[in-house]
Amino acid sequence: MSNTTLDGLLVKLREPDLDLRAMAASDLLDLLKKLDISFMKDEGKQCMTALVKLLYDSQSHVQNLGMDCLGQAVCLVDAETAKEAVSSICCEIQQRGTSAETTALSVALRVMSGRISEDADAKKVLGSLAVPIASMLSNSPDMPSDVAVDVFAALSDVLTHAGAQVATDSEVVNQTQEVLLSFISHSNLSVRRRAIAVLGAFVVHVPGEQSEKALAIIFQRYEACTRASEKCILLRVLVTIARQCPERVTKIVPSIIDREINLTEECDREERMTVLLVFETFVQHCTELVAPRRNEIYTCAVEALKYDPNYNYDDEDDMDTGSEAGDDFGDEYEDDIYEDDEDDTWDVRLSGVKLLAAIARSGLYSPHDIAQHIGTVLIARFREREDVVRAEILATYATVVGALGEFAADSASGVAEVLQQQAPEAVALILAAIKNYPRSTETKQLAFAVFAQLVLAKYDILDGSLSDITPIVTAALSADDTSGTLQTASSSLVKTNLKLDVLEFLRVLVQRSSVSDSAAEFLIATKDGLRENASSKAFQVPSASFTAAAGLVKLLSNAAHQSSMEVAQFVPWAEDMAQCAASLTGTDDQDLRSSVNVFIGTVLQKFGDHISASTAQQLLLILTELKGGMVHAPAVLGAFVQAISKPTALPQEIVVAVAPSVLQVIDPLLRQGSASVVTVALNVVKALAGYGTETLASAGDHILTNIIAIISKSPESPPASALQAFAAVCPTVSEENMRSVTAKLLKLLSATTVYDGQSAEALGELFETVGRSFPGLMDSWKDGIIENWSQTHARYYKQRKDSSNEAIQVPFPTAMLTNAAKSINSLYTGFYEAQGQQWTSEFLESLVFTSPRSTEDIALVCLGLRALGYAASQGWLAQSDQLAAQLDAHIQSKHDDVRDEAAAALGKYVGSYPATFAALFASATASDSEGASASGRLQAVNVAVDQIVGTGHDKTSADAMWAQITAYAQNSQGPLPDVLAQSLATFAVTFPQVFIPALAEHVSSSGDAKIKAFYITAFRTVLADRHLSAECDAELKNVLPQVLASIDDESINIRRLSLLALFTVIQSKAALIKDAVSTIEPALFRQTVVNESLIRIINMGPVKKRIDDGLDARRCAFQCVHMLVRMLPGAANTDLLAKSIVRGIADDHDIRLLVLQVIHETVSTQAHMYAERLDEIAASVRKVQATKLSPKAVSQEIEKHHAILKSSVSVLVALEPVAKAATSPSAEFDKLLAEVMDSSNGELSVKQNEKMSGPAAEMHPNQAAFVEGVDHVLSAWTALELAVEHEWGGQDTREKRDTLVDEIVDYFDTLVRKRQVPEPSDLEELLLDILDEDFSIALEDGSEKEVARVLCSMFDECKTGNFATVDKMAEEREKRSKGSAAQQSQTMARQDADESDDGSDSDVSMEE
To answer: Could you tell me the pTM of the whole model?
Structure first.
């Protein structure tokens, strides 16, 4: 910035001429806005001094410019200069008192503080402003009220955004506190309210002892005060605090409720309002604390709603509830609503309504009780005489009904029944209110909002009242349009909004499937109003009219089909509306254009056979005209598709007649359109094809060419609509043309088959159509599918051979195989259908009975097995002992891919013939079945169970299968495989009432630890299912105490498994365990005690190593405790919880980290529990800090030691507020805390380790290890490593791979800050998106699931200091790195051998 420019402008600011000063100030403001560098110190002082002087200018325009300039300049100067400028302004305010310039000064102060608060780097500057502002307030208690409001706004900015900086100066904190406490009783209401808000900000945002003291003083004053006015002020301060930081007031909420719950007749209006506000706040923000007094609080709200001592509502018992209210919907829309200026009680009733609304939202009552009690109370008050209160009542009732809508569908809830009973009275009282207060437009608008919500809850709820509602609907719709008249803008807006509310009610009303007689009469009476408003000039009214009319047409059509209702009387109206819509298809209003097109399409679809053929054809042609260009094609042609898609009332001859025209329209769209345009054009093709070959016969070959071009633009992921359109066009294409494009088409479809699993259904439809339409091309298509799959498999096998990783790390192309199998099955399904033959697997048996010797043979066998499995799951496969034997033979193959496919195919085959299950299970568990064969057969058993029980729900077979599996488990001498435990879980999930109790009984009655572990594993599998039915939940709730009794089992492994089961249920199904916590927790907390008998010492030469065999189970126990306090706060016994926390602090490091999380999550609600045990906690922390690091410690041991010390410091810091607020201080705790606060105390210093209170405490304590682990996991992900190696993501692929590590770490850190638990499914989606966007990888092998699972598991481990997975991944990576050269050499040797063997790969060794 040029000094000359700035100096020149500053000189001009002193010009005596007003215009010159104003222009200089304006130019300076423009300059300051453009600056992106800070002032030099002297330059900044000179500028700020000159700008402050502008505030004393005699002209307000110059003063305003000075304020704006100060707001810009304050962020460009150093902290000292900014503070000096603020101090100068504060001194001037103090000296000038009530002069005119004082207001300009205070506004400038507010502008400056607000501007600084927006700058994240300026908190230090902002914090320094507290000194001059607090001093000024202290010395100027009588400053003008508007000035005081501005000053308090500035102080609020300081405290809210720089409270931590303010807290470092105890003198300023004390002064600020005293000033705020003095101003909250100010005589001026605005100043008082602002002071109250700022005092709340002080308590919430200024950490440390002083804010706690301020809160204590406020509460003490409240308890001691005898004047209602003072009490109200103090309560409003507490409300401010509770709304921003509810945990700060948890201790005092019960006391306040106890004191204020009994409002007496002597209470004045202000006191009533304040107490109701307090209850509303507590209900919203401290719900659990008010639950014991909910009925009394509800009574307070009801009594407040009736509080109107100046008016006798009994006089209104004869209130007119007639239905003549419609006469008042004419032009009387002036907003001169009724208000009684002498009545000051209405705001008490308003507060009562707001409290009722809070109670309804809080979950304190069941949906039925809300409807029955709160709904009834609100309805009774619809006759409220004050418009503002009546509006709030109606709005609250509408909101309540809307929230109850989801429960109304459940007949067991009783909500629908209650609403049905209330509806007649609600309608009658609403209509009476409209009649008695005809000029309250808001009442009319909210009336229709209530009606709409009632109908959404139960579609026919108003049918008995529609005749009463009809007059107000027709009156509203027929009211004069305001456009073009001399009415005011506000009047026009009100009237338009009312019409929109009426139209929205009509739209909701017609979203039903049947029409009662009363509904039919209502619709007849209101339909003309829709037509009238379709031509309205008012904003959004025509669009809303056509939307409602489209719904009405659908309803009438459905009603005509379901009953003998005659729709002929509506046909002229529908034609007239359609003609009106046709005239508006070229409008510039996008919403209106869309709604008129939809309406035309709906009329043609539903009434096409009722309107004249010429009109129908004219309207259909309109839906092919792209007025305004291609951009409107989706809306217009979308309506065309709607009109002709079957079932439709349009006669076929009309569609056939317009087909040539629409085909000409879509031809360029298929070639040149955007994605959305191409999609709608393809949908047109599909819809036309539904009318037979004659609609596309002349254009089929041409359309096929266009579709192939569309697919070729994105062969990996073509639109499903393109594949569906292809299938639709096939019957119209000549066989010669299809033959000519087969090679190209199959090549394109092979890419789709390989990469796009989402198009599988569309591909199936396409291949089935080809098989049906072109029997002469069957061999070509079948061979093409097989060849494409073989090439895919060959590429996979080559990667597997060439990879430096172990073979298993190269993902098998399972999705590609699935698509190939489904494609070949679909091809023959269509062929057999066209030939009139029964489906047979002969075409696959040649593949299945192939001996898998070469790579090509393996590909053929895998394809045949997958296709057979798919056919079996569809019930197409005939029973064949020979086929079953062949599948079992493949299970014994030495090739793992063949074994896996054979196991799945055999399982599905057996699943289609349950009688064969016993033989399969016997062979799988036979003593001579071992190794890969046994594993494959067991997997087949699991697949068969899933198909027979999970999918087929065959209860008879399930009983026999369960008996066979459990008998084997009871008698087996060897290990019990987890795959059978998974099978038992399928039984339990499918038939919960039978098998969940049976499973629990096995857990509790099994004496053998191996057998019990097997059944607990099955039970854990059930608990891990997040989509269990209500029946499952009910049965689990009944048996959980029985199963979890094993937490006290004598076997340490059983205890660990039982604790894992408990963790699972608390994490995913906490409600199931809530009632049983008191029964289970004694055993749980016993597992948090170190069992000395499980500790052993191993001599390792000169070193003795301490092994704790109980550590894993104890860690599981603490994980359960952590999850318990998180998911079920307040459920745990505080004494048991406190003792476990004290123990855990002195336990292993990873357990201490879990305890630290428990402390952070419970310190606000269990402060008294910690306060009573500060000495014990201090002793545990001291013990931890006394641990010494060995001089020979390696880097990982050093890092873990530092983490141990840091975690001990974190415990102290987390409990610091508790220690300061404790009534009986702990000298030992305070001493420890002082030591860690000492910056010279090395690695135990808070400043060295970073203060870990608040959100920081929840940050990953071992992030470095986790980052390293993420990198190791990604290095083992074959798909990603291939992408990096071949630069699929471009030249910067390797950089993108490194960035992916950071993105994953950021994902977990974000969840931690939000206190959310990482979910593998969410991480899977993130990984899929990143790999697709950054690396051009469309995963189909499911590897993202395993990667996400490993990352989430590793995160949980690292969070507790467990680096086992990280170390394991590092070792595996090192092995891969060392083995890559040797493996590459072996690979080259094998390739040389292959090439020397007559050029054939038939003898390639498959030992890998």
So the answer is: 0.65
